[in-house]
Write a structure and sequence with these properties.
Structural class of chain A: alpha+beta
Number of domains of chain B: 1
Strand order of the largest sheet of chain B: 1-2-3-4-5
Number of strands of chain A: 11
Helix content of chain B: 25-40%
Order of helices and strands of chain A: EHHEEHEEHHHEEHEEEE
Number of strands of chain B: 5
Oligomer: heterodimer
CATH class of chain B: Alpha Beta
Radius of gyration of chain B: 13 Å
Shape of chain A: globular
Number of helices of chain A: 7
Radius of gyration of chain A: 24 Å
Number of helices of chain B: 3
Largest interface: A-B, 27 and 25 residues
Strand content of chain B: 25-35%
Strand order of the largest sheet of chain A: 1-2-3-5-4
Strand content of chain A: 15-25%
CATH topology of chain B: Transcription Regulator spoIIAA
Largest sheet of chain A: 5 strands, antiparallel
CATH architecture of chain B: 2-Layer Sandwich
Shape of chain B: globular
Distance between the termini of chain A: 34 Å
CATH superfamily of chain B: STAS domain
């Protein structure tokens, strides 16, 4: 069953659209109906708030899933934001991301966007309450374990397994990195944020992958103690807290610190951050110019985690302030745009493998195989998070 | 002090009361979305202006609440010393928790 209804660009369309969706989904379990109503409300509220035209709401019901599409004629593209706890707005698409089995958006050929989501309905009841209702199969509660729901019987849940592996890797890494985190000297004078070593927070040039989230990691390192994870976060308040912390650490006399940042794609479909405190450790090199920092190749929405010794790192030709190359397969070190480090002739080291035939390591998530500069050993590891779907090249 | 409207399905009603210890209690009924949160904000604003100590928002009678309601609660949380969301629906509770707002928006029970 598939039904479409058009709504005008007026706030009253929000409750009308909700009631329309609720009415169509009425036969489903109560939590499914509630989730659909809430997600429809979020999507159509966005249409009213961010466009100046009406919208079409399409609901397609099948025994396996419910698909909802909201099509507007607005110009902009919807994007998921990461509001902090004190930011009042910006949670609409986050709620959709949290509740939907899948969601996404597409540009319409004639202008406008279609934002859609699906909810997979569980084929068989797993709860006594649902069984007691003795409803047909399609009216049973939605699966909370979405990966399990999508999995074909007899096939391993490769994504779920990949996530587990990443989580395990994160735990190991965190244990290894956490102890040496120094207590920041709170009395230290904060430095102005214009200092070159402060990691950029977010990179607007990075194409957004539906469902991905940004995680910024801050790594301080000195030449004696090695790299130290200062913090990581995907939310603005975490980022600012860690920046404060980082400044305090950096201002210790005699220390030579570097800050690195990375961007991570979200592998989990359940909204839970995977490896929130994943430690990103990078070597500090003697030839590292003042102000240089690591940029993890995020154009493909992946995290590169690299821990190695200095001798395993060779120096590449100078990089003149380019952002991370999207074509690079391995971790790359680029100087920040406009930095002192980008002076012509200043060697900026790059994490490149001297081996002629680098071994291949399977990515932790997805089917893509990526050549890795060096095989992981006890002292170093390389982890790629790659979305199963190809990231859009726009 | 408070006011009650007729309450056809989803219609917003707001009742405001003070308990003895200086907390303001706002009893909300109906649906909370972008069409009703403005009205709710306008009704509660004077209460927050007069005493910004503790605000209890009783949402046991709220049948539906989306991110507009959460946005309003978060705004209120920055204006009062303490805020309590009383008896949220299972869905509202889940959303507040999963959005990482459980510390900021205290929920009871």
């Amino acid at each position: 069953m598939r039904q479409t209804r058009s709504f005008e660009h007026t706030p009253e369309s929000v409750p009308e659209a909700r009631h329309f969706a609720r009415e169509l989904a009425r036969g489903s379990a109560a939590d499914v109906v509630d989730a659909i109503e809430l997600m429809v409300s979020e999507l159509v509220t966005n249409c009213i708030r961010h466009t100046d035209s009406g919208f079409d709401l399409t609901i397609a019901l099948s025994p396996e899933q419910i698909r909802v599409e909201v099509t507007d004629r607005g110009l902009g593209a919807p994007g998921m934001r990461s509001p902090g706890p004190s930011d009042p707005t910006g949670r609409g698409l986050r709620i959709v991301d949290m509740l939907a089995t899948r969601w996404g958006h597409e540009k319409r050929p004639g202008g406008g966007n279609t934002v859609w989501f699906t909810l997979t309905l569980e084929a068989e009841s797993s709860t006594a309450g649902a069984a007691a209702r003795a409803q047909p199969a399609r009216e049973e509660p939605i699966s909370r374990r979405r990966t399990a729901a999508r999995r074909r019987p007899g096939q391993p849940a490769s994504r779920a397994r990949g996530r587990t592996r990443i989580r395990e890797a994160c735990r190991i890494r965190c244990r290894a990195i956490r102890p040496p985190v120094p207590t920041p000297e709170l009395g230290a004078k904060p430095r102005p944020a214009t200092r070159g070593w402060i990691a950029r927070v977010g990179r607007p040039s990075v194409p957004r992958v539906a469902g991905s989230r940004r995680l910024v990691e801050y790594v301080c390192a000195d030449r004696e103690a090695g790299p130290v994870l200062v913090g990581s976060g995907s939310r603005r308040h975490q980022v600012s807290r860690h920046l404060r912390q980082t400044r305090a650490v950096e201002s210790r006399p005699g220390a030579s610190w570097r800050v690195a940042n990375g961007v991570r794609c979200r592998a989990g479909g359940d909204g839970a951050p995977v490896g929130r405190s994943l430690g990103l450790t990078l070597p500090v090199l003697p030839q590292m110019p003042q102000g240089a920092h690591y940029v993890i190749d995020s154009a493909l929405a992946r995290l590169v985690l690299f821990q190695g010794k200095e001798r395993e790192v060779t120096t590449s030709p100078p990089v003149h302030g380019r952002p991370a190359s999207p074509s690079g397969d391995g971790p790359q070190l680029n100087a920040r745009r406009g930095d002192r480090a980008t002076r012509p002739g200043t060697a900026v080291p790059s994490l490149r493998c001297p081996d002629a035939n680098p071994p291949r390591v399977t990515s932790a998530v997805g089917r893509t195989r990526i050549p890795v500069a060096k095989p992981p050993s006890a002292r170093e590891s390389v982890i790629f998070l790659v979305p199963a779907a190809k990231s859009p090249a726009r | 002090m408070g006011e009650l409207d007729a309450n056809p399905a989803g219609r917003l009603t707001v009742e405001i009361a003070n308990d003895g210890d200086g907390s303001a209690i706002v009893i909300v009924k109906g649906d909370l979305d972008m069409t009703t949160t403005e009205e709710l904000e306008a009704r509660v604003d004077p209460v927050i202006q007069s005493s910004s100590d503790r605000l209890v928002v009783d949402v046991s009678g709220v049948g539906f609440a989306d991110s507009s309601a959460i946005a309003l609660f978060v705004r209120w949380a920055s204006l009062v010393r303490e805020i309590e969301i009383r008896e949220p629906s299972a869905m509202l509770r889940r959303v507040i928790q999963r959005m990482g707002l459980a510390d900021r928006l205290e929920m009871s029970p």
